[in-house]
């Protein structure tokens, strides 16, 4: 059933994917990582609105230098669901953590993950677990159902740190088709690499919007190296223009 829905819509939600103990463990390890590891990371691995203010941390990537998160990429529960949806064996390269702190102003531009990954066949998905209650007020993900069936949309450079490319022809018609995904802590939403998605900024006064995500690639995927080099170049250009050290 999961597979059918995923293949029709390009996303699925599994409520309480992580049980209470699993969520407590993940949250505790993230708190440790943020407290102990993040202060030593480069600007390219930990994105802050203002590095002098740790509460403005909003994205972590390249977390596999840490033993817990390196091992977490082969967590059987995550891997089993990913493989069921992709229909083949799959691996995760690197976990990510996202936040939209309250009062911050950084919408996630409409984009398709495989525009960044450049994988062929595009048998890739992202599993995004809510760590806080997530809804329209604090910037839930919004999907265009079925959009994974239409391949790549045109993208252009965005100024949003963490999302170097955004869809350039995103229209009011697209907006009218969006499905907002409201989640409780422990729920997972899973989207295909071509599913168009975006998120508003967090308009709430006090609520964070934290999530932990892992991308799984089917073993049949190969990277289009030339397209990927173009993406890396665009990323480096964005980071330079934002004055980031890597
Ligand atoms: O957390 C967000 O706002 C965006 C996450 C996202 O685009 C993704 O994981 O593919």
Question: Which helices and strands occur, and which strands form pairs?
Answer:
Layout: H1 2-9, E1 11-14, H2 20-37, E2 46-48, E3 57-60, H3 67-72, H4 76-86, E4 90-98, E5 108-111, H5 113-117, E6 119-120, E7 124-130, E8 141-143, E9 155-160, E10 163-167, H6 172-177, E11 179-180, E12 188-192, E13 197-199, E14 211-218, E15 222-223, H7 225-241
Antiparallel strand pairs: 1-12, 2-3, 3-4, 4-14, 5-13, 6-15, 7-12, 7-14, 8-11, 8-13, 9-10
Bound molecules: 2-oxoglutaric acid.
2-oxoglutaric acid binds at residues 98, 108, 113, 126, 128, 197, 199, 211, 213.
Q: Are there runs of 5+ residues with pLDDT below 50, and where?
A: none
CATH architecture heading: Sandwich
Distance between the termini: 43 Å
User: How large is the count of helical segments?
Assistant: 7
Q: What sequence of helices (H) and strands (E) makes up the elements?
A: HEHEEHHEEHEEEEEHEEEEEH
CATH class wording:
Mainly Beta
Beta-strand content estimate:
25-35%
Radius of gyration: 17 Å
Enumerate the strands of the largest sheet in spatial order, edge to edge or round the barrel: 1-12-7-14-4-3-2
By helix and strand content, what is the structural category? alpha+beta
Mean pLDDT: 93
CATH homologous superfamily, by name?
q2cbj1_9rhob like domain
Per the CATH scheme, the topology name is Jelly Rolls
The kinds of small molecule bound in this structure are: 2-oxoglutaric acid
Number of strands: 15
Principal-axis shape: globular
């Amino acid at each position: 059933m999961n597979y059918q829905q995923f293949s029709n819509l390009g996303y699925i939600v599994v409520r309480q994917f992580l049980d209470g103990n699993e969520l407590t463990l993940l949250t505790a390890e993230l708190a440790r990582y943020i407290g102990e590891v993040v202060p030593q990371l480069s600007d390219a691995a930990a994105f802050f609105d203002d590095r002098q203010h740790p509460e403005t941390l909003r994205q972590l990537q390249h977390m596999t230098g840490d033993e817990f998160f390196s091992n977490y990429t082969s967590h059987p529960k995550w891997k089993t669901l990913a493989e069921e949806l992709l229909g083949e064996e799959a691996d995760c390269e690197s976990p990510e953590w996202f936040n939209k702190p309250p009062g911050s102003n950084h919408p996630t531009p409409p984009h398709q993950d495989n525009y960044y990954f450049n994988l062929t066949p595009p048998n890739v998905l992202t599993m995004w677990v809510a760590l806080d209650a997530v809804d329209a007020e604090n910037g839930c993900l919004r999907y265009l159902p079925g959009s994974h069936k239409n391949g790549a949309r045109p993208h252009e450079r965005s100024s949003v740190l963490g999302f170097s490319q955004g869809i350039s022809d995103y229209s009011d018609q697209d907006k009218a088709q969006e499905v907002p995904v409201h989640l409780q802590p422990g729920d997972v939403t899973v989207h295909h690499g071509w599913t168009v998605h975006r998120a508003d900024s967090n308009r709430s006064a006090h609520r964070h919007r934290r999530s932990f995500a892992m991308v799984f690639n089917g073993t049949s995927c190969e990277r289009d190296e030339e397209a990927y080099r173009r993406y890396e170049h665009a990323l480096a250009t964005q980071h330079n223009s934002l004055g980031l050290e890597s």
